[in-house]
């Protein structure tokens, strides 16, 4: 049987099990301010609250107190250069409550590295100036090869 | 879809080999989907509106420059590309240039753009391009290699006498297909650089990344044939017992 | 076997402790590495990759490699891949929200390709079992069915508790196709449309071949024939648009 066919359940039949779940779950930055123990996820549209709870508890070993879900309307937008309006797919969000004493702060994944940026800018500036000097030096002697100098 | 456009819209094998990217990613990166029918019961289940004609030039399909060149609303004149049966020019081949300002010079093939039958030769057939011009800086000139047609503008060089030569694909006695110079009969070997990618020089010298599975673990055989389905085997190993028999059901 | 190993998703790096079901399972030698608990931080990449411009990775798992692995190993690998995909999706989403660069997006495709291959291998094994035991594939059955407009399509069957002849509701909603005047008219027009599309495509290819012949007279004709099998090349060569408007010498 295909791994993606979920068989019909009848009373007295064997328990239905999923061995290779293909649900996805994204941890997203909360759209609104939340208490420190509430985490926002976006998930596959087919997932139910029970699925989300089981998914986190069994696969990620995270204690879950409560799960609430909502479906956000997908945004509408105009197709570039064509102009007709299309609607993107709806998104299911899950708000997962962790135990009271746990805290989760969404990390800053793109730390501003000022030092590296400054260094890069300095090297660009330096090379630009070097090039300018080179041009200045060769201004008075056209058609002279580059190696011919003191 | 038009057959010619279909053929053109495919990225050639040799032009993507060096990047070592999965085909799936290349397809996803160059695709410009305007709109796709959502999943579910639909009048047209898999309907999709997307760009079908692309212009292939020097920029590779997964780059932002390619996307800019093929931006929505931008259309290009049709390009005629001569059909070739077997691609014969590889990265690292020594070739002689037969046209242009560097005619008669020999160089090494640096890049392949198979969709247009193009190769670039290292340091030859260059033009000066001005880059970085802005207020307070005049900009600098860069030497940029221009592409050459493999069908008429370059010729392979025979390794025995270092002269340009016509060639043929022939089979050796071991059944291996090789390029043979028709002038001298010598084999023109495919250079080792042909298998080089951006991630490794040769497959043997690949440096394992932290998340890679070790080669030994990949080749280790743990499979034992059993008269069980995947589900039964996993349940067995996890100690789950299930002896309820599913009641009768009907397929239609 | 060259050393190019597969992606992220390594068997060796499997987090055994996160899979409750495996706590009592006998450990395979290569799977005995366990990783400390990271909880919700498993949804994020390694901290040293935050803000990186490139993250190198190997290639995806191939089917022939997965065929060597036992069912239990495949089951474990699936969860490693699933976690990796969730991590990549989280990182991609955050990068998009912050209008930042998501480094090496091909990792996502590598993981998904591995998952597809794994599923295919599992399916192969199950089909083999069902063929041996019952003489059938055990896959979801299907048949070609004629729809209400007389168009044929492949119908994947569903499971029902009662047979079809007793299922009144199903019979009412899924009526058998009977040819009638309206559908015959429709099909005639529909087939004409398909025929015209095909002819148009042939004509376009024919014209394209003439364009190629005009531009590349010394072209490899065998290659041309292989690329355009539906075009009569002799006819294209004889056409006035190829040879010009004069009497041939």
Number of helices of chain C: 8
Uncertain ranges of chain B: 1-8
Structural class of chain B: alpha+beta
Instruction: Could you tell me the CATH topology label of the largest domain in chain B.
Output: SH3 type barrels
Provide the succession of SSEs of chain B.
Answer: HHHEEHEEEEEEEEEEHHE
The domain count of chain C comes to 3
| Helical stretch tally of chain B | 6
Query: What is the end-to-end distance of chain B?
Result: 35 Å
What is the molecular shape of chain B? extended
Order of helices and strands of chain C: HHHEEEHHHHH
Give unreliable regions of chain C as ranges. 1-36
Specify the biggest β-sheet of chain B.
5 strands, antiparallel
Helix content of chain B: 10-25%
The mean pLDDT of chain C is 85
Major sheet of chain C:
2 strands, antiparallel
Q: What spatial order of strands do you see in the largest sheet of chain C?
A: 1-2
Which CATH top level class of the largest domain in chain B fits? Mainly Beta
List how many beta strands of chain C DSSP finds: 3
Q: Which oligomerization state do the chains in this entry correspond to?
A: heterotrimer
- Which structural class best describes the helix and strand composition of chain C? mainly alpha
Shape of chain C: extended
Salient structural properties:
heterotrimer; B: 252 residues; alpha+beta; SH3 type barrels; five-stranded antiparallel beta sheet; three-stranded antiparallel beta sheet; extended; C: 249 residues; mainly alpha; 3 domains; 8 helices; disordered N terminus; ribonucleoprotein (chain A); structural constituent of ribosome (chain A); ribosomal protein (chain A)
Description:
The complex is a heterotrimer of chains A (150), B (252) and C (249). Chain A is α+β, with helices and mostly antiparallel strands. Helices cover 23% and strands 19% of the residues of chain A. Chain A has a four-stranded antiparallel sheet, covered by helices on one side. Chain A has a two-stranded antiparallel sheet with strand order 4-5. The radius of gyration of chain A is 29 Å and the shape is elongated. Chain B has two domains: 67 residues, no CATH class; 111 residues, SH3 type barrels (Roll). The longest helix of chain B has 9 residues. Chain B is extended, with a radius of gyration of 26 Å. The N terminus of chain B is likely disordered. In chain C, strands 1-2 form a two-stranded antiparallel sheet. Chain C is extended, with a radius of gyration of 29 Å. β13 of chain B pairs antiparallel with β3 of chain C.
């Amino acid at each position: 049987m295909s791994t993606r066919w979920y068989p019909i359940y009848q009373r007295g039949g064997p328990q239905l099990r999923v061995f290779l779940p293909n649900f996805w779950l994204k941890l997203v930055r909360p759209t609104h301010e939340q208490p420190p123990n509430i985490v926002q996820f976006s998930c596959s549209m087919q997932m139910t609250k029970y699925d989300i709870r089981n998914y986190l508890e069994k696969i990620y070993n995270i204690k879950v107190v409560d799960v609430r879900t909502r479906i956000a309307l997908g945004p509408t937008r105009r197709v570039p250069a064509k102009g007709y309006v299309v609607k993107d797919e709806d998104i299911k969000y899950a708000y997962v409550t962790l135990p009271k004493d746990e805290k989760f702060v969404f990390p800053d994944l793109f730390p501003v590295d000022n030092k590296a940026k400054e260094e890069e800018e300095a090297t660009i500036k330096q090379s630009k100036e070097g090039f300018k000097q080179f041009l200045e030096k060769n201004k008075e002697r056209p058609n002279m090869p580059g190696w011919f100098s003191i | 879809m038009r057959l010619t456009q279909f053929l053109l819209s495919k990225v050639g094998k040799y032009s993507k080999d060096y990047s070592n990217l999965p085909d799936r990613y290349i397809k996803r990166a160059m695709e410009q989907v305007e709109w796709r029918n959502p999943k579910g019961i639909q009048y047209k289940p898999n309907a999709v509106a997307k760009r079908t004609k692309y212009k292939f030039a020097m920029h590779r399909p997964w780059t932002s420059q390619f996307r800019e060149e093929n931006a929505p609303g931008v259309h290009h004149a049709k390009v005629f590309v001569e059909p070739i049966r077997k691609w014969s020019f590889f990265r690292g081949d020594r070739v002689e240039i037969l046209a242009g300002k560097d005619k008669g010079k020999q160089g090494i093939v640096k890049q392949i753009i198979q969709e247009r039958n193009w190769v670039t030769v290292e340091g030859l057939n260059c033009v000066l391009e001005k880059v970085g011009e802005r207020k307070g800086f005049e900009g600098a000139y860069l030497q940029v290699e221009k592409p050459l047609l493999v069908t008429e503008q370059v010729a392979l060089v025979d390794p025995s006498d270092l002269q340009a030569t016509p060639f043929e694909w022939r089979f050796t006695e071991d059944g291996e297909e090789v390029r043979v110079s028709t002038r001298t009969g010598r084999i023109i070997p495919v250079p080792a650089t042909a298998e080089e990618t951006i991630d490794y020089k040769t497959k043997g010298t690949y440096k394992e990344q932290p998340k890679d599975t070790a080669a030994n673990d990949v080749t280790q055989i743990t499979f034992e044939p059993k008269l069980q389905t995947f589900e039964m085997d996993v349940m067995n190993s996890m100690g789950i017992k299930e002896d309820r028999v599913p009641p009768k059901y009907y397929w239609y | 076997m060259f050393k190019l190993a597969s992606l992220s998703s390594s068997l060796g790096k499997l987090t055994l402790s996160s899979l409750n079901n495996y706590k009592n399972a006998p450990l395979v030698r290569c799977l005995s590495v366990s990783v400390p608990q990271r909880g919700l931080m498993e949804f994020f990449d390694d901290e040293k990759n935050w803000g990186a411009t490139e993250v190198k990775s190997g290639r995806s798992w191939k089917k022939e490699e997965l065929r060597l692995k036992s069912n239990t190993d495949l089951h474990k690998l699936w969860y490693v891949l699933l976690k990796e995909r969730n991590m990549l999706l989280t990182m991609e989403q955050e990068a998009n929200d912050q209008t930042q660069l998501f480094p090496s997006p091909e990792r996502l495709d590598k993981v998904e390709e591995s998952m597809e291959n794994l599923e295919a291998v599992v399916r192969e094994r199950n089909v083999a079992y069902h063929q041996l035991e019952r003489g059938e594939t055990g896959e979801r059955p299907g048949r070609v069915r004629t729809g209400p407009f007389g168009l044929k399509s492949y119908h994947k069957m569903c499971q029902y508790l009662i047979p079809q002849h007793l299922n009144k509701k199903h019979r009412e909603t899924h009526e058998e196709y009977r040819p009638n005047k309206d559908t015959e008219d429709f099909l005639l027009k529909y087939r004409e449309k398909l025929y015209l599309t095909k002819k148009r495509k042939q004509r376009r290819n024919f014209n394209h071949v003439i364009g190629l012949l005009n531009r590349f007279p010394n072209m490899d004709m065998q290659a041309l024939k292989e690329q355009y099998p539906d075009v009569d090349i002799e006819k294209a060569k004889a056409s006035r648009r190829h040879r010009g408007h004069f009497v041939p010498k």
